[in-house]
TrEMBL record:
Keyword Transcription: no
Domain of life: Eukaryota
Coiled-coil positions: 19-60
Protein name from the UniProt record: Sjoegren syndrome nuclear autoantigen 1
Lineage: Eukaryota, Metazoa, Spiralia, Lophotrochozoa, Mollusca
Record's keyword terms, sorted: Coiled coil
InterPro entries: SSNA1_fam
């Protein structure tokens, strides 16, 4: 019977050792879980902060793009008006030259024509 007792004691010791090994592995796994949960929390916070920053940048971009579009519109309208002024100036100059020539041709003989 003492052999059976010794075998039972050996099994018991081995069983206790296996349980202790499993508890050690469980504790190590629990430690890793806690570390990853902490990292997850930090990442979620970073995502929240970045999402808020992205929203602010998008809003700023939207406003700046709208302003740029207004600048583009104003510049285009101003350039168009300036071109019309140039065309009108050219037309006025041509009319003035033609009228000046006509007046020179109608100048009374003996009078000097006005030089332009």
């Amino acid at each position: 019977m003492s052999q059976q007792g010794a075998a039972l004691q050996s099994y018991n010791n081995e069983l206790v050792k296996c349980i202790n090994d499993l508890c050690g592995k469980r504790d190590e796994l629990h430690k890793q879980i806690l570390q990853e949960e902490e990292e997850k929390q930090k990442l979620q916070n970073d995502i929240r902060i970045l999402t808020e920053r992205l929203a602010k940048v998008n809003e700023s971009l939207s406003k700046k793009m709208a302003s740029r579009n207004e600048f583009d519109k104003t510049i285009a309208e101003t350039e168009s008006a300036y071109m019309k002024i140039l065309e009108s100036s050219q037309t006025l100059l041509n009319v003035l030259k033609r009228e000046s020539q006509t007046l020179r041709e109608k100048t009374v003989p003996g009078q000097r024509a006005v030089q332009s």
